[in-house]
Structure formats: structure tokens, C-alpha cells
Specification:
The complex is a heterodimer of chains A (107) and B (122). Chain A is mainly β and 107 residues long. In chain A, strand 5 and strand 6 (53-54) form a beta hairpin. In chain A, the strands form two sheets. A six-stranded mixed beta sheet of chain A has the order 2-10-9-4-5-6, with no helix packed on it. Chain A has no helices and ten strands. Chain B has 122 residues and is mostly beta strands. Helix content of chain B is 0%, strand content 49%. Chain B has no helices and eleven strands. In chain B, strands 2, 4, 5, 6, 9, 10 and 11 form a seven-stranded mixed beta sheet that branches. A four-stranded antiparallel beta sheet of chain B has the order 1-3-8-7, with no helix packed on it. In chain B, a hairpin with a 4-residue loop joins strand 7 and strand 8 (78-83). Chain B starts with a strand and ends with a strand. The chains are: A mainly beta (107), B mainly beta (122). The A-B interface holds A 1, 32, 34, 36, 38, 42-46, 48-50, 53, 55, 87, 89, 91, 94-101 and B 35, 37, 44-47, 50, 59-62, 95, 104-110, 112-115.
Chain lengths: 107, 122
């Protein structure tokens, strides 16, 4: 199975900051990497698929990049509604594993 | 408006069975692959299973293979997860999610239900 490792596991930042979350796959997954945002008590929300393609309605301050084994999610200027937990998921091959999550908290 | 509504969760003893349902509306259910994803309390997301839109292809996480069965009834716009031989570690909120891609996951899981809680305990 492909293991997905996110870093950091948690992150404190302020409104207006730029943050980057990293996701590393245990083997190459081409560009088959998706990012989700989850707020407490809610279902996950798809932000980005295929490494860098925005889901409809996602603000342009979010961006994704990478290929092969190393991927990043960046938020250019944090807004209050961005404080949440973020997950990456590989859909290169079954089982379609998630990273362990990165909790983004307000500093 | 896409809507996915899970049901069937509850408290069940170890070794027993439970069947979850996910009622879909607002889209052409029979043309989408569908997934189950679970989340144990306070933990991260764990992918569980996927079924193709034509029902002829299914895949499972190793942790549930041989115990869980994903199925669908396209005439009733409903997705199912039959869970047998349940274990305490299966306790989680179970989400159903829609897959809009012809290639599984190629466009992510773009719509999710609110989840249904399964608790396996004696």
C-alpha cells in the first residue's frame, strides 16, 4: 500500500500569513493527489484534485503543486475560515490512502 | 443540488453485522462511482471502499477486505455498505462520497454526506 505522510501534523499561523503543507508518498503517484479541508463536525470538502486543479468555488489563495512523491498545498493569505484540518489523498492506486492530516490553528 | 444522506449507524456488539445506506439525490447516481470513507473519533480519514458506476468493480481497504461489502442499487439511487464481523476498531463516522471521474479518484471525491456513526462495543 502507498503511505501518505503529511507535515507538519499541526501548524499555528495568523490571519494574513502564507502557509505550506507538505504531503509525501511512499512511491510515485504521478499527479494523482487530492487535497481536502475538514472543519470540526463536518464532512471533508474537496479543495484541489490532480495535484493542482481547483474544485469549483475554491478561493484562488489556495494552490497545489508537486509530482511523483512530493506535493504541497499552499494558502497565500490565511483567512479566518481557513483554520481547519487538511488532508491529502492519493488516487493513483487502491487502496486510496489519506495522509494523517494537518491541523491549522490560529496563533 | 447534490445530496448524500447516510443512515443505518448505531451501536452494535463485536462480531455482529450492520448495513449502512447512502441515499443520493440531485444528480445522475448511476453514472458515478461511489466511495465509503470513515473517521474514528478524533482521528484522521480512512478510505474504506469504492464501487464503479456499473457495479462490476469494487475495491477495499485491507482492514475491511473479506468483512465489508460495498454495493449499490441504481434503480433506487442508493449506496450500501454491508459490515460483517465488526470489531471495536471499526467504530467511526462513515461517510459516503461521490467520485466524478471516469478513472477512480481522478477528480477527487467532490460531494460527501454528513456521515453516520457506528460504535462497536459490548
Amino acid at each position: 500500500d502507498i503511505q501518505m505522510t503529511q507535515s507538519p501534523s499541526s501548524l499555528s499561523a495568523s490571519v494574513g500569513d502564507r502557509v505550506t503543507i507538505t504531503c509525501r508518498a511512499s512511491q510515485s503517484i504521478s499527479n494523482s493527489l487530492n487535497w481536502y479541508q475538514q472543519k470540526p463536525g463536518k464532512a471533508p470538502k474537496l479543495l484541489i484534485y490532480a495535484t493542482s486543479t481547483f474544485q469549483r468555488g475554491v478561493p484562488s489563495r489556495f494552490s497545489g503543486s508537486g509530482s511523483g512523491t512530493d506535493f504541497t498545498l499552499s494558502i497565500s493569505s490565511l483567512q479566518p475560515e481557513d483554520f481547519a484540518t487538511y488532508y491529502c489523498q492519493q488516487t493513483y492506486t487502491s487502496p486510496y490512502t489519506f495522509g494523517q492530516g494537518t491541523k491549522l490553528e490560529i496563533k | 443540488q447534490v445530496q448524500l444522506v447516510e443512515s443505518g449507524g448505531g451501536v452494535v456488539q463485536p462480531g455482529r453485522s450492520l448495513r449502512l445506506s447512502c441515499a443520493a439525490s440531485g444528480f445522475s447516481f448511476s453514472t458515478y462511482a461511489m466511495h465509503w470513507v470513515r473517521q474514528a473519533p478524533g482521528k484522521g480519514l480512512e478510505w474504506v471502499a469504492v464501487i464503479s458506476y456499473e457495479e462490476n468493480n469494487t475495491e477495499y481497504a485491507d482492514s475491511v477486505k473479506g468483512r465489508f461489502t460495498i454495493s449499490r442499487d441504481n434503480s433506487k439511487n442508493t449506496l450500501f455498505l454491508q459490515m460483517n464481523s465488526l470489531r471495536p476498531e471499526d467504530s467511526a463516522v462513515y461517510f459516503c462520497a461521490r467520485d466524478p471521474s471516469l478513472v477512480v479518484g481522478g477528480r477527487g471525491l467532490d460531494s460527501w454526506g454528513q456521515g453516520t456513526l457506528v460504535t462497536v462495543s459490548s
